[in-house]
Write a structure and sequence with these properties.
The chain is of the alpha/beta class. About 35% of the residues lie in helices and about 20% in strands. The protein has 15 helices and 18 strands. The strands form three sheets. It has a six-stranded antiparallel β-barrel, surrounded by four helices. Strands 2-1-3-4-5 form a five-stranded parallel β-sheet, sandwiched between helices. It has a four-stranded parallel β-sheet with strand order 7-6-8-9. Strand 14 and strand 15 form a beta hairpin. Helix 2 runs parallel beside helix 3, helix 3 crosses helix 4 and helix 5 packs antiparallel against helix 12.
């Protein structure tokens, strides 16, 4: 994945001057040793310049981790810690930061070598609040070297998402299609997150596409597509146009990313796209998304933003699906009931025309878009990628700005069941515990649009921390409540 940042966390140990500095030195060394044994050593950098006891030390440490190329910070309380200089360090560091604290190792340390970091973390959190500094603090932030190493490793994907957002440009083409007000995208919160937005006309894209006619790279790109599709290449006559379109998008990204390092796209595929371009862009969208450049349909700007967060968190391809249709009772009775621990209300089908990449489909073929072909000639709807989504754990989630520019989000861990969809498009049979109640009291009650981002694997814990870190109020992060945990809007009777 070349479209997401590499995280390098600077570990800076701090010490209150009335405690032995050696506590912080030795505990920092033990922490770094524990991390490098268990995880990727490239993720961290041990600041050797000083143990931060004062504001001057803070400046020295800050300069050192910046010079080392760190884009994230871990403030490690080896003992009680100096609440002023340690939180000033977090305030002046431009990037995601976390605070963790050392536990006492054994009874022998309770006399002369007691660190009291358990107490110091309270003062650190208070001072962070006073300074208005956001920092990630784990659920239980006090631990021995191995436990703190685990905490830092949990911070890595959180930091990757936060760093990525600050260097992301979303490029969109065209206005929303008619009747897609649900994809409303107030840009105020994008700027608050550090995300740049470039909105273009479909005509701009069409002009760029036509300018790529006869591009010498088209035959090679078409061969790549042919090799990927294999026997699933049901519409070979459209490959050259799709190759031309993919090159158009890739060249546009390089020419327009500007000061940003990372890009996501929000495109439009109807109602005029097919008749003018002569195909649908689904397969190309799937290929870019599979390469780590999310492309949302229907100019869903917060959809592609959500996808990008999913790529950063999972370091894997994601997809964007309609929360589309209920599972028929006969399908449920035959293929799900008694085999899986779900009721029919826990299940639904996630679908989109063909934007899910080949690596996330059981089998696949490039065909025509059946819904569009109901009102258009089939030949202009070629280019969609169809197949059942691979079974396994997933996370359904979305970050959204409301019409009055408030950030809100939802997250639900679930799975794609190994049940044949017996339908068309990129589609899967999904199961989320208590989905029926989640659907009513989070998705509908929260006015979320029909698109949801899907990350492969259970990433709810990390996504929750990402959303908290970037400023989504905790009460506005919806999730699927367990059976006996009532939603505020749920009828108690």
């Amino acid at each position: 994945m070349n479209n997401i940042p590499k995280v390098k966390i600077g570990i800076v140990a701090v010490s209150r001057d009335c405690f032995p500095e050696s506590l912080s030195v030795n505990r920092r060394k033990a922490l770094v040793e524990a991390y490098t044994k268990k995880y990727n050593p490239q993720d961290i950098y041990e600041c050797p310049v000083c143990i931060v006891e004062s504001e001057l030390h803070m400046k020295q440490a800050l300069a050192d981790i910046k010079a080392a190329g760190c884009n994230a910070l871990c403030v490690y309380l080896g003992n009680f810690g100096p609440e002023i200089s340690e939180t000033m360090l977090a305030q002046e560091f431009d990037g995601p930061k976390m605070f963790i604290a050392a536990a006492e190792e054994n009874v022998g340390c309770l006399s002369d070598d007691r660190g009291d970091a358990y107490c110091g973390m309270l003062n650190a959190s208070y001072n962070l609040k006073l300074r208005g500094v956001r920092a990630y603090i784990p659920e239980y932030p006090v631990g021995d070297a191995e436990e703190c190493a685990d905490m830092i490793n949990e911070f890595v994907p959180i930091a990757r998402a936060v760093v990525g957002l600050k260097d992301l440009k979303i490029i969109s083409f065209g206005p929303r299609p008619l009747n897609f007000l649900a994809c409303n995208a107030p840009i105020y919160q994008l700027y608050r997150l550090g995300v740049e937005i470039e909105e273009n006309s479909e005509l701009d894209l069409f002009e760029a596409f036509n300018a790529h006619a006869g591009d010498k790279r088209i035959p090679q790109k078409a061969k790549e597509m042919e090799a990927e599709l294999g026997e699933g290449n049901k519409k070979p006559e459209v490959l050259e146009k799709l190759a031309q379109y993919e090159l158009t998008l890739l060249d546009w990204i390089e020419a327009h990313k500007g000061s940003k390092k990372y890009v996501a796209l929000a495109g439009k595929c109807w109602p005029a796209f097919q008749t003018q371009f002569g195909f649908v862009p689904c397969y190309v969208n799937s290929r870019l998304t599979g390469a780590g450049i999310p492309v949302s349909c229907e100019v869903d700007i917060y959809g592609c933003l959500s996808e990008y967060i999913g790529v950063c968190v999972s370091e894997d391809a994601v997809t964007l699906l309609d929360i589309n249709n209920s599972v028929p009772k006969d399908m449920f009775a035959k293929s799900i009931a008694g085999k899986y621990p779900y009721t029919i209300k826990d299940t639904f089908m996630g679908f989109h025309c063909g934007n899910t990449c080949t690596s996330k489909l059981c089998s696949y073929s490039m065909k025509y878009q059946k819904i569009m072909a109901r009102s258009l000639p089939i030949e202009v709807t070629n280019g969609t990628l169809e197949g059942d989504i691979i079974p396994g754990d997933i996370t359904f989630f979305r970050l959204q700005s409301t019409a009055d520019t408030k950030l809100r989000a939802y997250i639900a861990n679930g799975e794609v069941l190994p049940v044949a969809s017996q339908s068309f498009g990129g589609i899967g049979v999904f199961a989320i515990p208590e989905m029926g109640r989640f659907y009513r009291h989070v998705l509908i009650e929260g006015n979320f649009p029909h698109h949801g981002a899907v990350a492969f694997g259970h990433h709810g814990r990390t996504l929750f921390e990402v959303f908290k870190y970037i400023g989504v109020p905790v009460e506005d992060i919806g999730y699927n409540h367990p059976k006996n945990d009532r939603y505020p809007t749920e009828n108690p009777f």
